[in-house]
Fold this protein.
Amino acid sequence: MQCLEARDALLEITTGRTPPDLRRAVAAHLADCPECRAVAGELEETAALLRAVPDPAPPDGFWPDFMLRLEERIREPVTVGGRLRRWFRTPPSLVPAAATAAAALVFAISSVVLRPPLPPTAPSPAALVAPYITDSMRALMPHLDEAVQIWQSGLGAENAEPLLEPLPQAP
Amino acid sequence: MDQEDAALVEAFKRGEESAFTALVIKYRETVYRIARRMVANHEDGADITQEVFIRAHRALPRFDGRSHLRTWLYRITVNLCLDYQERRNRHPWVDLEEITAEAPVETGPVAQAEAEATRQAITRAVAVLPPRQRAMVTLRLYQDLPYGEIARIMGCSEGTVKATMFAALRKLRGLLATEWSEKR
């Protein structure tokens, strides 16, 4: 028996039921092959450990309730909406996480929608300057308002280069 | 197919609803155990078990009996568990506390603590396996199914099942060895 064959059989031996002749053949191979003996030991121990974990059992009184719910669901008419709902439904163990996520989303949306109105924006430079421009200043400088507007528009100075070429004058 | 199962399926096809109830009673605990080992918590295991029988009820009239009813039911179970795992991967945590909450039947606090620690380590190691490997380990080690039947359930060759099992057991061995060496 070769190692590959022996290891295939080892899986049968360590995790299931094996016919006696195969078991004998594997035993003969193991006697001469330390590597396969080591693998056999590992597989056997791991399988034994896994099998030692007891079968999970539902809580007491689970099955009668299960049968009732099953009967109800079998009687439910099958609708496309119902199928879609079941397909997209959250697994029960994820319900707390989904609820937390939904609450966080609602909080985030409501904090945007229901937040108090923002404070008024800063007054424009023109509004800041306006109280200081008196009538006498306007009398002395008739183009003051225009100059303020030019300054405010950020073009710099009255003699700044025009952004666009002036349109040709009509003859 | 098992003669009892064949008779129940035929009775159900003739309209005897009680035959289906008998099938549910016969297989519900095994289906629950497979689902529970795959998903590692009671709520989801119970939900999947319910869904398995809902689907079986709808599809049983078309069941042709070429395979074992058991194989067919386990295939539905494994597929639902794999679908569940797919959805669950977006939230990859495992309810280890719940699965390890079942008190071991041991006497003495030291033995009990050791058994508990071992079981938790094994549960954590199994939870690390990819879902298909976990399904194969569950079907083989806990349900004692032959490799051929596992191959039919998983929709792959017997050789693939054996190779996957071999890899899964060696991986588990490595994980358990690491865990225990860290504790020492």
User: Anything to note?
Assistant: Chain B touches chain A through 50 residues (CB under 8 Å).
